[in-house]
Amino acid sequence: MSLDAVSLADRRRLKRRLFFWRAGAIAALALALLILLAEGGFVLPGAHIARVSIAGIIVDDRAQQDMLEKIAEDGNVKAVILSIDSPGGTTTGSEALFESVRKVSEKKPVVAVLGTLAASGGYIAAISSDHIVARGNTITGSIGVIFQWAQLEGLLDTIGIEMREVKSAALKAEPSPFHKASPEAIRVTQAMLDTSYEWFLRLVAERRNMDAAQARKLGDGRIYSGWQAVENGLVDELGGEEQAIAWLASEHGISETLPVRDWAPEYPDIGVAGFAGRALGEAAVTAIDGLTGKTQQAKRLTLDGLTSVWQPDR
Questions:
Q1: What is the pTM of this model?
Q2: pLDDT tens readout for residues 81-131
Q3: First CA to last CA across the chain, in angstroms?
């Protein structure tokens, strides 16, 4: 090999070495810069804390569950704040929401901030989080399950209407609003409700680190203020979103400078006919409000099955 060829090969080897050294130095410098910026509170574009609102009546909401799945997989979401203002809803809907939030918590921290009301199913949503913050005057608790029906046979007698039925067995469609429930119908309904109540109590005991006896003592259906809930171990601390973010920073190293962004479920377009139906439904709810003096939500009119919901009697 000629001298020129040897020199050329040496130069090429030297250039390759210099390239790798320079690339390594640049990568090391970039990493060091990122570490310094992170320590100084700098956050990458797009990184944020997701705020998820749990408001009104809780039902089995597929769109909401899909949204929570997206949050769990989104690398830009560093933590989640559940902003809860709900009296509860269906027990099944509360169960589905609880499970969805727990899946999120496997990948990123979740903290609940309780507003005016977070009772019954709203409290189930709260204990799905890793930490609970409430205002002193928040209404919470109402740990329990209820199954209700209207008894109409007296009214039907008054207006001269008689309901008749043919059914496959005595307990089919029982209890019924059209006649008094038999002792057996009450017994089987109570047995079904008891299984849901025991599930609720187990959730409270497990998520709030208390024994079964204490959970049962607190879970007699009563409501608590935020102050009482903290005293009894149902809530971790008093405050609002500021305290929630401080907890994320102290316990999980989440930067307090991260923006908080609202996430909302994506519901299908209901169209003109659906909009008209919704408008009629809201008008009916408004009329009921005027007659009863209570605030009724449109979803409340469609609740079937067991409910974990709190609303005071007038």
A1: 0.76
A2: 999 999 999 999 999 999 999 999 999 999 999 999 999 999 999 999 999
A3: 103
Same domain as 105, residue 124: yes
Where do we find the tokens 């499970």? 99
- Same domain, residue pair 2 and 143: no
Q: How many residues comprise the chain?
A: 314
Residue 38 tokens read as 């992170």
Strand partners of residue 54: 84
> CATH number of the domain that 116 lies in?
3.90.226.10
Q: Dihedrals φ, ψ of 118, to 5°? A: -145, 70
Catalytic residue numbers read 120, 172
Residues 121 and 54: beta-carbon distance below 8 Å: no
The domain containing residue 106 runs over which residues?
48-148+211-309
Q: How many CB atoms lie within 10 A of CB 173?
A: 12
Asked if residue 204 lies in contact with residue 142, where contact means CB atoms within 8 angstroms, the answer is: no
Task: Return the structure tokens found at 172.
Answer: 């089919």
- Locus of tokens 């020199």: 7
